[in-house]
Amino acid sequence: MPLTAITRAVSPSISQCQVAFVKRQPIDLAKAIDQHNRYEACLAALGIEIVSLPAAPDLPDAVFVEDPAIILDEVAVMTRMGAESRRGESESLAQAVARFRPLRWITDPGTLEGGDVVRIGAALFVGRSGRSNAAGIAQLERELAPFRYTVQGVELQHCLHLKSACTYLGRGQILANRAWVNLAPFGDCRVIDVAPGEPAAADVLAIDGSVIIPASFPETASILERGGWHVLPVDVSELQKAEAGVTCMSLIFDV
Questions:
Q1: For position 109, which CATH number holds?
Q2: Claim: this prediction has a pTM higher than 0.85
């Protein structure tokens, strides 16, 4: 079944983005746009159809389309962002997502961001972070119960989202920084550890045996290659100044 990815162009106001665990630095807009274009090209080279939305000038973080929506096989859940300045992104993205799935919404007092959700089949693991609270996790569980998904909270520390600390590769394997996340909820999954000098390297995008990873994490890339994964490094260094990961810049789903 073909895959589709929703992306959004880099906002001209990205320098005003939210940052929590990285030091704010000047962002070269032209370079960020070029890197995002190359990221989209990497997805397209894997046979993914790209739905590229125009930039949102008034929403500095809007390039990070994964946070406002969780797209599953039967439904999409539009989130209520933990960062108040980002809440307009959900409404902005909803029209594009509604072309593909019926919508559900997380509402006040719940907060939830897609970067906190790691899916393994019908199981959704949700980070209890500064961006996703207990009310938001409970709402997600209620919304998805009719579709027989399970939702389980995961404790984390020292990072923005659950996907900052671990991502699912496939084949029963997780890439993780154990110092940032309690991996007990993941049960029997085999854990591949990020390289010691690359604590933020766990945020990778796995697609049918290929793994997209920031080019700034070469040692972790080598670990994955030795494990039999087809590794695709992409330079997202300018976007990383906005606390980007490679998962957060696309919403990928079966049509």
A1: 3.75.10.10
A2: yes
